[in-house]
Structures are given as structure tokens and as C-alpha cells.
Amino acid sequence: ELRHRASPWQRNLGYPLAMLGLLALTGISVLIVCFHVLELLLDDAAMPRGIQDASLGQVSFSIFGSFGAALQVVLIFYLMVSSVVGFYSSPLFTRLLPERQDTPLTKIIGNCVSLLVLSSALPVFSRTLGITRFDLLGDFGRFNWLGNFYIVFLYNMGFAGLTTLCLVKKVSWAVQAELIRAFGEDR
């Protein structure tokens, strides 16, 4: 219903650009994680431990300078939004979605707790994936399990593999459905 009410500009330009942006952000995050996996295999310094004696403004947290730092911010924001969307899309938590002017207090508290847990896990999540090395107002690099190579390596491989699988599945199924519809085989 929302697609039918959208303007032609929105349907023909807005939605495809948004889709390309999401594909690009997902692809960039998978590439960064794959690069981080290679770093993990070659260098022990790639482990997401805390940075000692790194003052803000004196050490660059990205090899690409200001552009890399801006890309990290965009990717972290993308991971935050996709985590929230994925959380509320899972079958276990769809009942937790708030309803307009009809949300009981227990559901509001559950949403607050869920968003607090997701936002607290985001710095550790982005550090473990190698997207950033910045500690975001906390010393999240001091967790003991962040020094375990196997946990960090499997976490990165799982993220890269599952994200690629979801990306290929969604894109290939959408292309397949459009091809079937275009050739009139859907009848």
C-alpha cells in the first residue's frame, strides 16, 4: 500500500538508490571484516585489545585519515540500525514492537532494556569485527575474551559468512523473482 502511494520519483529513483546504498554499506562492512580476518591471521596486533597511550587527536584510528574515520562512523551507524531492525524482525521479538497509542508499560520497559543491551554491545561488536579501534568512552578492549584468537576469528568469519549468505540470498531471489515476472512465467 505504501509503494502504491509513493511518487514516481520515489519509486524509480529513491528506492533503487536506497537499495544500492544498503548493498554498498553491507559490501564495505564485509570487505572490512574480511580484511580484518587476514590481519588476524598475519599479525597479532590486529586483536581488538585496548590501545595503550593513544590520545585522541594524536593517533589516527583509520589508515584512510578523515575519510576513513567518516566511513567508520557511517558503518557503525549502519550496524546499529541493522541490528535494531534485525532484532525486531526476529520471530521471537516481533511481539515486543510498540503499537501506536496502545503500548503497555511492560512492553515499553522491555523495549528500553532491549535497546540498552543493543547499544551497549555495539562498541564491542564494532571493535571485534575490526570496523574501528576506538573505545567510545569506555575501555571495551580490556575484556579477556577479546584476546582469544579463536573467539575473535570465528566471530569475524561467522559475520562475514552469514552476511554474505544473506546478501546473496536476498539479491539473487529478488533478481530471480523480477526475471520470472518480466518473462511472464508467474502466471
UniProtKB/TrEMBL annotation:
Pfam families: LMBR1. The chain crosses the membrane at residues 12-38, 58-88, 108-125, 145-168. One of its GO terms (biological process) is Wnt signaling pathway. The gene is Lmbr1l_0. It is a multi-pass membrane protein. Its main location: membrane. Keywords: Cell membrane, Endocytosis, Endoplasmic reticulum, Membrane, Receptor, Transmembrane, Transmembrane helix, Wnt signaling pathway. It is found in: Cell membrane; Endoplasmic reticulum membrane. Belongs to the LIMR family. The keyword Transmembrane helix applies. GO terms for molecular function: transmembrane signaling receptor activity. This is LMBRL protein. GO terms for cellular component: endoplasmic reticulum membrane; plasma membrane. The keyword Magnesium does not apply. It comes from the Eukaryota.
